[in-house]
Design a protein that fits this description.
The protein is mainly alpha-helical and 177 residues long. The chain has a domain of 114 residues: 3-Layer(aba) Sandwich (Rossmann fold), CATH 3.40.50.20. The chain has a three-stranded parallel sheet. The longest helix has 17 residues. The radius of gyration is 16 Å and the shape is globular. The two termini are 25 Å apart.
Amino acid sequence: MFNKDLSSYWYCPYWKDRHIFELKQAKTFERVTEIALSVMETMPQELSQLCGPITTGGFGDELKNRKIFNRCVIELRVQKLNPFDQTLLEKAIGPLKIKWKKINGAEKYCKPILNVLYKGIFQSGKIKRTFFLPNWHTSEGSVWERNLIQSLGIEINEFPESWYQKILEEFYFEVVR
């Protein structure tokens, strides 16, 4: 399974150029939520979503966390689990987070990412199941997501350890060292 060419799974076919353009123009987290939901509208039913460390926790390094996270989303696609690929939202989240930090410098975590964007995604009813990475509990955002997801009654699954270990092996020299 892991030796298969993954290039056909690398990009989510539901994200179109116009969505990327709209993300780059987004001025608020509410607008980013609208764009995410418009992508989800074009996808087959029974969406899943990956949850795990990106900015906090995990390997203690955002770039390393992103590489693993992105590859795990691809694995969900390979396994035909119909994931909503939220990684492209970073095209808007990054600039909005910088703007937010200038105004709210004393606060550690950019809460609108959770309270506006991800809350809107999960409350939409489109996400039917989630997959949490093994180290989800090290991430402030993932802990928040899990609590919200439980309260909404969305199915919670652990990302299979065997898949995760194979992915870590792919990135051994980049992530572990």
